[in-house]
Target: Putative transposase
Amino acid sequence: MIIRKAFKFRLNTNPEIEQKLLEFSGCCRFVWNKVLSLNLYRLENNMPIMWKGELSFWLTLWKKSDEYSFLKDCHSQPLQQTIDQLERAFKDCFDKNQPNKRLPRFKKKGKSDSFRYPQGFKIDQESSTIFLPKIGIVKYRNSRRIVGAPKNVTVSRKGGHWYVSIQTEYETAHDPIHPSASGVGIDMGVIQFATLSDGTVYAPLNSFKGLAAKLANLQKQLKNKKKFSNNWKKLQAKIVKLHERIASARQDYLHKISTEISENQALVVIEDLRVSNMTKRAKNKNVVQKSGLNRSILDQGWSMFATMLEYKQAWSGGQVLRVPAAYTSQTCPCCGHVSKENRTTQASFVCVDCGYKNNADVVGAINVMARGHRVLACQASDAVMSPATGTSKKLRSKLTL
Model:
């Protein structure tokens, strides 16, 4: 089995190195925007877009021209990788199987500054240094050992710091076997971030909510500054740093929880939540309340958490199942009765048919786990749960798994 991992470290740069990193990312951004504008023009005029072969030819001509000769200062590999990434973005856009397909967008300076080396780099873990072609030797903060053979490195800027992400690959003799034999269902929420079917509860971090007032104050100050003035740039840097702090805290929290769960559970069943649909804007009624709920949902990072669980379970030999979330909080795990009256409050669940009582989030997690067991038993994710006693015809027609 081939396992791929990424190891991300912060670079210890100096002004000279940072200038080169900015030049490389700027050249890659220019190539992306230049190629994108050409292909968008061709699409608007009903012409076939250019792919890698033609674009590589144009890139060579741009390097030889006087107008774009600055591209020669950048290594050829990051520029070629930019063309590859844009080609992949166009293919995803035209792929009917992509759920969120859209045309590639132009890149702005200061946002998503990055470039990639597929080869030519050298990593020395003993001295905590990495050699980047045409840039030189750069030290990085070596927080852990790199496992596997390095395949490519991506240099990116986040906030006021530069980072290097090293993708590695290694092969195991056999598929990993998870040390545990237990499983758990997870109910995601806003009041409680995650509730497990065994009763374990993880409180929400709410990293954005805790710093929202400070962020709003800085943004209000920024609005009153002259755009691109020195004071405007200072405030903009503070806002970027605060956003980085919020994102880093959320990511760290999600990593800790997902690691703990994946180490202790061989089977993890989660709700297949459509976050993009859940966070759509309200059009006419309850606009303020819906916007607040949307912020709370997005502050949790449910999609990121599910992704972390999936790849960590794959590394350890575990399994993650996604099941529909419909009626998990309204179904009695004891008798199977489905009704809105079963859950009259946010926290408590009382079955109106058999009298079963429990925490509403725990009930949701138990039902999620039960649906996961049915998926495994039927060996198909579209298995239909048999109608429960007391369930209305309307609910039975919608109720799956």
Observations:
- The longest strand covers residues 2-12.
- Residues 230-264 form the longest helix (35 residues).
- Residues 380-401 have pLDDT under 50 and may be disordered.
- Residues 2-171 form one domain.
